[in-house]
Amino acid sequence: MNADAPLAERLAVVDAGIADAARAAGRDPAELTRIVVTKFHPASLVRELAALGVRDMGENRHQEAQAKAAETEDLDLRWHFVGQLQSNKARAVRRYAHAVHSIDRESLVRALALEPDAGDDVEPLASFLQIDLSGQPGRGGADPADAERLAEHVLATPGLRLVGVMGVAPLGAEPRPAFARLREVSDRIRSLAPDADRISAGMSGDYAEAILEGATHLRIGTAITGKRDERG
Ligand SMILES: *Cc1c(COP(=O)(O)O)cnc(C)c1O
């Protein structure tokens, strides 16, 4: 695609691709949430996206996310935190995030918990368990075998609302089998918590495969935003 293509055009191309993939999977495109991952791009791009009707934005680093959320506070946006999260940043992320997609260990669940004196008006944080799909521990994501235990922790933690699972397809392998494994974990989690039925999967290069395996939340960066150096 032409690097100069206006943002609106790239957004429209991706949304058409999402709609096509949904139809191919026999699913209603309206049940999918397209998150635009704006990492490496300035808050001005977030504003342009908001003007095009985008409401769900994704970021993977706390400092950058916090700054952009503050700069666009006047817009009615939902920030999705999708990157690896250090426990000592968890409380700060809660202040601006609508959802965290990368919950992969018990210490992080504890760090994200609401303080007992937080008051009643704090929205529960939409919580996705990140599941490792690569079989190589240490790259982010819980071992699939630990998913139920982690889910129980989230369910027992004040201020967190378990909504589903998240995964990143491993580099250099077919994405669809990885997304199929994520779907199996999702099925197990749903037998424990029927409402936790969301699946956050699919990026610029593999969202069609993710949709075929049941993804409900797509995290799309470069196909919409362009590469940062393309924007000068
Ligand atoms: C950057 C990022 C994305 C978006 O990736 P693209 O390939 O640019 O679409 C999605 N998920 C996570 C966790 C990311 O860090």
| SSE pattern | HEHEHEHEHEHEHEHEH
Ligand names: pyridoxal-5'-phosphate
Helicity level:
25-40%
Rg (CA only): 17 Å
Please tell me the overall pLDDT. 94
Q: Given the C-alpha coordinates, what overall shape results?
A: globular
Keywords: Pyridoxal phosphate
InterPro entries: Ala_racemase_N, PLP-binding_barrel, PyrdxlP_homeostasis
Organism: Homoserinibacter gongjuensis
Pfam families: Ala_racemase_N
Features:
232 residues, TIM Barrel, 9 helices, 38% helix, binds pyridoxal-5'-phosphate, PyrdxlP_homeostasis, Ala_racemase_N, PLP-binding_barrel, Pyridoxal phosphate homeostasis protein, pyridoxal phosphate
In short, what is this structure?
Residues 43-227 form the Alanine racemase N-terminal domain. By secondary structure, the protein is α/β, with parallel strands linked by helices.
Describe this structure in words.
α6 (147-155) links the parallel β5 (125-130) and β6. The protein has a single domain (7-225), classed as Alpha-Beta Barrel (TIM Barrel), CATH 3.20.20. The protein has 232 residues and is α/β, with parallel strands linked by helices. It has an eight-stranded parallel β-sheet. 39% of the residues are buried. The chain has helices at 7-24, 43-51, 62-71, 90-96, 106-112, 147-155, 175-192, 207-212, 222-225, and strands at 33-37, 56-59, 78-81, 97-103, 125-130, 160-166, 198-200, 217-220. Bound molecules: pyridoxal-5'-phosphate (PLP). The site of pyridoxal-5'-phosphate has 14 residues, from β8 and α9.
